[in-house]
Amino acid sequence: MNSLYWFRNDLRLSDNPGLCHYLQSEALLLVYIWPITRPWCNVNGMGKQRERFLLESLQSLRDELAELGQDLLLVYGSPELILPRLVEDYSIDRVGASRTPGYYERTTVQRLQSRLTVPLALYETSTLLDEDRLPFELEALPPHFTPFHKRVKSLPIPGPIDAPAQLPPPPAALFHPVRDNGVRPHTALPIRGGSHSGRRRLRRFVFEQRDILQYKQTRNCLDPLTGSSTLSPWLANGCLSVREVAAAIAHFEHTETANESTYWLSFELFWREFFHWRAYRDDISLFKLSTSQKNLHFCTFEPRSFARWCAGDTDFPLVNAIMQQLVATGWCSNRSRQIAASCLVNDLCLDWRYGAAFFEKHLIDYDVACNYGNWQYLAGVGADPRGGRHFDIEKQSRTYDPRGTFTRKWHGERPRQPRFVTDAADWPINDLQGQDSEET
Ligand SMILES: Cc1cc2nc3c(=O)[nH]c(=O)nc-3n(C[C@H](O)[C@H](O)[C@H](O)COP(=O)(O)OP(=O)(O)OC[C@H]3O[C@@H](n4cnc5c(N)ncnc54)[C@H](O)[C@@H]3O)c2cc1C
């Protein structure tokens, strides 16, 4: 039997339950389809750092596959057009892929299913628990994190499965090298995509430097690699599985020590879990401005405010520094994301989705469920029982950047600008007043 496995957000060999279903095939075609980024909320394309991290993750997967005599076919286009063609060209009998949240992702799979002449199976590869292990139907998912966590926190999490020792050979196909986009990691975040780097970071954070023991105290640090785990880029691209991270924490707690911090890191993994299941359940409403009459979100779209926020040129030096860090490195801390998001929603009164789209473009850890779920939460239209969070940016600066080191490092101080500017050429006020008008 010939099989095709379509890698999506599961760019790894170890703990990949989807791939494991195809080890007995006669020939196995492994495919990755470059994500199509659609223009949305004045944002288009993928940021250079996000693209770089993804390309490195693909190269690393390809290197791992080469050791097992396999390769990865990297293609560009729509899955629903590409995969049926590959099925025909390579006489494929069955197709497998990981299940991923997201409305476009789901509708793409639906269209693909209607075009394929062979069965398509989807596997859960990105959550701690499988859907059939949840103690409720997805439709009855608790509305907020706390009741969700109470119901799932004691359930056994399946251990990660080993990488296959062998893979069936690929069919005779033309495999192209993974391109290099010429971008290097920023010196402030010198990390690379791929399972090897992800596992190294996990080992260091948990077992070697044992930073996990102070995580609860340091997690709000604005710099990467020194406060929080900074595992998100590998988790989001699937270079690391969330079960591998959970297993490493459990092993550390079992063999070394458990404290509030080790508990807190697992706790954060459940936030990720919650947002993933919410994204599956909420589908397209994850992208709606407001999800009910109760949480109608009043906002405007003032292009200049949005442009200033994106460029890190607002009247809030800390927000400017965060935005500079985000674009330069592709990452910013959870605290920074909350501050920047609150600024966009509450101080600039913009539609939260514009901010989410900008994050989507740049984050090397972009994850549709975590990004849109957290933005909804911040804007008070999602899973937050308190409804909307307005951060006092001055207070946040005093607490999290008391000496202004972070703000200076990322050039957050900008000359203040008038709140509204009117270009006399576009809006000749003097004309309206009947002064200085030129006869035409
Ligand atoms: C507006 C906004 C947008 C966000 N967008 C994303 C995104 O696109 N991708 C993404 O992975 N995370 C997102 N987050 C969640 C969180 O900010 C990042 O997961 C975290 O900053 C990653 O750094 P870390 O790995 O050092 O996290 P740690 O604090 O070390 O946490 C460990 C892991 O737990 C998970 N986690 C932690 N906090 C959250 C959270 N609030 N929600 C969901 N999962 C969490 C992540 O997988 C993270 O890697 C967003 C948060 C906000 C407020």
Short description:
By secondary structure, the protein is of the alpha/beta class. Helix content is 44%, strand content 6%.
CATH superfamily of the largest domain: HUPs
Number of strands: 5
Radius of gyration, taken over Cα atoms and rounded to an integer in Å: 23 Å
* Mean pLDDT value: 94
Q: What is the N-to-C order of secondary-structure elements (H for helix, E for strand)?
A: EHEHEHEHEHHHHHHHHHHHHHH
Q: Order of strands side by side in the largest beta sheet?
A: 3-2-1-4-5
Any guess at the CATH architecture of the largest domain? 3-Layer(aba) Sandwich
Number of domains: 3
Helix content: 40-55%
Assembly of the depicted chains: single chain
Shape, per Cα inertia axes: globular
Strand percentage, roughly?
Answer: 5-15%
Structural class: alpha/beta
Query: Tell me about the biggest sheet?
Result: 5 strands, parallel
CATH domain topology of the largest domain: Rossmann fold
Ligand species = flavin-adenine dinucleotide
Separate helix tally: 18
CATH domain class name of the largest domain: Alpha Beta
Low-pLDDT sequence parts: 434-440
Can you offer a commentary on this structure?
By secondary structure, this protein is α/β, with parallel strands linked by helices. It has three domains: 125 residues, Rossmann fold (3-Layer(aba) Sandwich), CATH 3.40.50.620; 124 residues, Alpha Horseshoe (Serine Threonine Protein Phosphatase 5, Tetratricopeptide repeat); 117 residues, DNA Cyclobutane Dipyrimidine Photolyase, subunit A, domain 3 (Orthogonal Bundle), CATH 1.10.579. Helices cover 44% and strands 6% of the residues. The chain contains 18 helices and five strands. The chain has a five-stranded parallel beta sheet with strand order 3-2-1-4-5. Helix 3 runs parallel beside helix 4. The chain is globular, with a radius of gyration of 23 Å. It starts with a strand and ends in an 8-residue tail after the last helix. Flavin-adenine dinucleotide binds next to helix 8, helix 10, helix 13 and helix 15. InterPro entries: Cry_DASH, Crypto/Photolyase_FAD-like_sf, Crypto/Photolyase_N_sf, Cryptochr/Photolyase_FAD-bd, Cryptochrome/DNA_photolyase_1, DNA_photolyase_N, Rossmann-like_a/b/a_fold. May have a photoreceptor function. It comes from Candidatus Marimicrobium litorale.
